[in-house]
Amino acid sequence: MFLAEPLSSGFAHYTGFMRGSLALSAAGAALLVGGYFYAGMWPQSQIFGRTLIAGDDPGEIALTYDDGPNDGHTERLLDILAQHNAQATFFLIGRFARQRPNLVRRIHDAGHTIGNHTWTHPRLIFQPPARIREELSSTNAALEDILSERVRYFRPPYGARRPAVLRIARELGLVPVLWNVMAFDWKPIPAEGLLQRMERGIAHNQRRGRGSNLLLHDGGHSGIGVDRSRTIAATAALLERWRDRARFITVAEMQRPGLRTQGTGLQPSV
After folding, report:
1. Considering 73, 112, 217, 221, which one is annotated as catalytic?
2. Which domain, by its residues, includes 22?
3. Residues 6-30: what's their mean pLDDT?
4. 79 an active-site residue?
5. pLDDT, tens only, 117-133
6. Would residue 202 count as lying in a domain?
7. Residue 19 shares a structural domain with residue 133
8. Which of 5, 155, 180, 250 has its Cα between 20 and 30 A from that of 40?
9. Which of 66, 67, 185, 218 is catalytic?
């Protein structure tokens, strides 16, 4: 009876200590997981390696379009860009480009920059190195066969990357490109709402003395034929409202000599 109280008290202290340790371990694991996904998914993170985001000229806007080429919508977008004498960047899915080589050539012939957006649009952060290399090299091969020139830029689907993704891209001579404005045009948002999101993002970057790189979509990774009419309408409105307030550039122009960029130090291989 004399030892019962100290033993029960000691056991209570031990179990309390263990519970606290487990809670701390769980919290630490959650922080590690959260930190990993911030590094690999947040578009402006440079933790896993340098990526090209935007220049330091607040008066410059890079319109970038993912997931094409896409019947009807890419052509309409090209017409609108031509009407405003604006250049853009198109990150193309390899399997769609292979099916629509004439549309790929039309994008290129209009003076726009074409980039690699993988063959099938997977989340590369979860893929083994062999799959990452195949996705990028197959798309490079398809685009370069169509264009008869090298592809120099790459955007990871969903922005998802890890060190192996960036290393393999560099080995293939590709500069990884992310963004600093999202319109969320894959959601059912009206064109006016997309425009408001773009303008808020541009204004935010201008206050910080930065150029803007807008993530938009002229296609959809599920297949050719996805409706992007709202994105096209929002693009037309943005070009009209900002034609005297900004210069629309390609990601290639972000790397012109003498221009400082977010994610500096990146140059395409020659």
Report:
1. 217
2. 9-41
3. 54
4. no
5. 999 999 999 999 999 99
6. yes
7. no
8. 250
9. 66
